[in-house]
From TrEMBL:
Pfam families linked to this entry: AraC_binding (PF02311), HTH_18 (PF12833)
Keyword Transcription applies: yes
Protein's name according to its UniProt entry: Helix-turn-helix transcriptional regulator
Gene3D superfamilies: Homeodomain-like, Jelly Rolls
Length: 292
């Protein structure tokens, strides 16, 4: 699914609340935007990347661009969910940095990039006051989105920041209570940085900008990533961008030069050389292998 089906470039956001049951045909799909899902009531099967997981009222999770998923239902199962679709560009990182919250966004920078078993067997489930707060925030966003009064886009952006802080706070409390997983501080920081790169790969990212976001020296940044993921932060960024490019190349209508720009490369020639070095063939040839 392309973002143009749901949202514009100036305000890359879309939101809807809906209910469905087994009469709905499960259609596996992926998309180029981020999808935040909150289960208001009911229970269903979530088909995600070839696996099935039970989801129920209070569950909240994120689907990344390119991940394949669908909903399925057994017997009398039905579900009501709120879907919040957005592009990472909805909220500029500079604003989060000015507010001093870039490093407190683990639900958005860490959890969505864990392996699928950990994401859905240990998903975030809200109840009581937390569930009520979640619903109030999301319903206020839907009201703004529906009525579109002057300034609605600014209010939604601010509400999204509130939502991100709220969910990250609960997620961190949830992680602290889990005794079977105990990540060290350096591993958590590496996950935060990787999550940031995964979410913002299309933007201009430099070592200087990363140093400012995570308040860490360039030397310590590269040493940390070498230790935790086996490569420098720029090497990791290139790897992430090329993987995203492979996904985008599945669209035959998208020109290679546009794909290069979408994954953060202003120079298409550099992009093609880098793609060839990492994948083993140029972008055009890779596309042909998909549709031969």
């Amino acid at each position: 699914m392309r973002s143009s089906k749901f949202m514009g470039q100036e305000f890359p956001f879309w939101m809807k609340r809906f209910a469905q049951n087994r009469n709905a045909t499960p259609i596996e799909h992926s998309h180029e935007f981020v999808e935040l899902v909150y289960v208001v009531r009911g229970e269903a099967q979530h088909c995600f990347e070839g696996e099935r997981y039970v989801i129920r009222a209070g569950d909240v999770f994120i689907i990344n661009p390119g991940e394949v998923h669908a909903y399925d239902y057994e017997d009398e199962q039905q579900i009501e969910i709120i879907n919040c679709l957005f592009m990472p560009s909805l909220i500029q990182e500079g604003l989060l940095r000015e507010l001093g919250i870039s490093r407190s966004m683990d639900f958005f920078y860490v959890q969505p990039f864990l392996n699928k078993e950990e994401r859905f067997h240990h998903r975030l489930n809200l109840s009581g006051p937390h569930a009520a707060t979640m619903l109030v925030i999301m319903e206020s966003m839907m009201a703004e989105f529906e009525h579109r009064n002057p300034g609605f886009d600014t209010i939604i952006r601010l509400k999204m920041i509130e939502l991100q802080i709220f969910l990250s706070r609960i997620y961190n409390l949830h992680q602290t209570k889990r005794h079977n997983v105990n990540y060290g501080e350096r591993e958590v920081m590496a996950r935060r940085i990787r999550g940031f790169l995964e979410r913002n790969y299309g933007d201009k990212i430099t070592l200087t900008s990363l140093v400012n976001v995570f308040n860490i020296s360039e030397r310590k940044l590269n040493r940390l990533m070498k230790e935790q993921v086996g490569m420098s932060v720029i090497e990791l960024l290139h790897q992430i961008r090329i993987e995203k490019a492979k996904y985008l190349l599945e669209d035959q209508a998208e020109k290679v030069i546009n794909v290069a720009s979408m994954v953060g490369y202003e120079d298409p020639a550099f992009f093609s050389r880098l793609f060839h070095r990492i994948v083993g063939c140029p972008p055009g040839a890779y596309r042909k292998t998909i549709y031969k």
